[in-house]
Prior knowledge:
Number of helices: 19
Structural class: alpha/beta
CATH topology of the largest domain: Rossmann fold
Strand content: 15-25%
CATH architecture of the largest domain: 3-Layer(aba) Sandwich
Radius of gyration: 25 Å
Distance between the termini: 77 Å
Number of strands: 33
Bound molecules: adenosine-5'-monophosphate-propyl ester
Largest sheet: 7 strands, mixed
Amino acid sequence: MLFYKIGSDNKICHPLLLLLAYQENLFITEVYIMNKIQSFDDYLSQYEQSKANLVKYWESIASNLEWFKKWDSAHSGDFTTTSVTWFDGAETNLSYNCLDRHLETRGEKTALIYVHNDPKKAPEHISYIQLHQRVSQFANMLKNHGVEKGDRVCFYMGMTPELMIGVLACARIGAVHSVVFGGFSAKALADRINDCEAKVLITNDWGLRGDKLIPLKNVADEALESCPSISSVIVQKSAPENVMMKDGRDYWFETENQKASTDCPAETQQSEDPLFILYTSGSTGKPKGLLHTTGGYMTYAYHTFRNVFQVEENDVYWCTADIGWITGHTYITYGPLLNGATTVMFEGVPTWPDAGRFWQIVDQLKVTHFYTAPTAIRALEAKGLDYVTPYSLESLKVLGSVGEPINEEAWEWYHKNIGKEKCPIVDTWWQTETGGIMISPLAGITETKPCYATYPLPGIFPVLMDAEGKEIVQPKAEGNLCIKHPWPGIARTIYADHNRYKETYFSTYPGYYFTGDGAKREESGMIRITGRVDDVINVSGHRIGTAEVEDAINTHEHVVESAVIGYNHPIKGQGIFAFIIPTSMDSIQENFHQELNTVVTKMIGSIAKPEKIKVVSGLPKTRSGKIMRRILRKVAEGDLANLGDTSTLLNPEIVEELIKD
Ligand code: PRX
């Protein structure tokens, strides 16, 4: 039998709709359309429904979106097989869902407000109709440069509207976007382009950040010396200064775009067709290219945005991230546009022309929802209230935090001085791998508590594991955070390396997805994320693998070996501390630290520079030759009284030297 049920009250819908569904060949026995969560009771009820029938729950969420053809199988796979699908056999298009779907009802509504780095330039308001047109034109330009469905397109740009437009253009024609943060070095960019064999690179001549000009095209040129897969480079102009353009390879965006038509119907995509690759650091090896696919990611971005932020039709939502990171993918671009919201994109930095820039923009645009990282909050707090009090901030309704644990002091400052004690703070825990928010308060619905990400979203089943690798059943506990069942937004693989995907996420606790984070759980079920338990450092909300930094440092001619660890940093959350064994003590010059910074900046980017270094003659090692990082962590934090047992070290005598000033 075929019948549609709408809402949590399960009312059977109009017979005409049934007929329509029948004609459309939708042979589905039941489809619930799950409403936006309205209250905490509603949250609990949806959570229970998701527990009772997880697949049906996700089907009901997906049914809010536009599918050209319904799925044959809503879900397959688990964390044992590690091959997961959602809505398999369905056809859709993400750019269609973000843009075309809204044209009739919200065509004139502002989709994107673009705020220039230069505060004297007026913000640009781009409607859904205009965004649709610009995305279509960009998509045709990509096609003119030979981009076809499945091809990889790399973006190495400043925060210009074309970055968002280009990403949506890829989604429109089924090309796979891979955005590389504009702060990465030529080597890091080349590694990422080569790993996914991108065909086209989109970049800017310069990136504008505060009073700095970032030489994006120069860095790209250096990278391209070793990137044979790139056939065209499209350069969008941002500054009057000249850059080198290579004949037959480099093209100005402005000229190429004008040649393209604005008519580009959305390609039909299979639900499991690749959507994007985004590189992120892990505890070992080179950065991993996490691959997200179309239908599941779309459903998850849509669902999490609307429930966590509770944005209403006339609200103005601003996420301050860069599109080079997952937060910019899901919560500047896809999540807001899937929900027909107005999203703000900012080119500049929070401290230029002064530390009041964020708050000036909030007042100017009447921003209602503001989502940023704890590092930015701490940095602005340190500048003092003189930069806050000139602004009313009265438009704000909801505040958000993402990317790293937020400390209580920063939480209170944000709550009191920015939210005026009336705006709920959603402390959203998630990862590049998860595609969207997993554990978070729902704005205005969940009672918040400083430092707590609170409860999982419906459809998400987090568990804590003990030292023996067993699930901890008692409510109040601390352990390693795993997730029990696949959700639609999970990355499906590491590009071209599924074995690494299996090994990284599913081998520590077989049958579970291991997040790499530790967490505490209260009796009530409330969760507090305590930070990474692996060799990943979180500097200003940016994930950096210790191995990557060590590899970079070790390329210095006077370095024999190094060990990099994270230590508590008052603004950045964590800073990088490098212990270094030199070829000889005599080889160390006064500017050694500076030289190491240069090497790291060249190999990775300036975000990975070690804040502190210590030159030593040896590193504490276990008898099997592994560096005992626990001891280095204590040394870096000055916690010398708690070094623990050092007698099992291969070289216990080294501890004396490590703790010497
Ligand atoms: O350690 C957690 C931390 O950031 C890691 C994920 O980093 P990335 O993939 O770059 O994604 C950042 C944006 C989602 C996590 O493993 N993290 C993220 N959000 C929080 C957090 N730690 C504590 N609280 C959070 N709200």
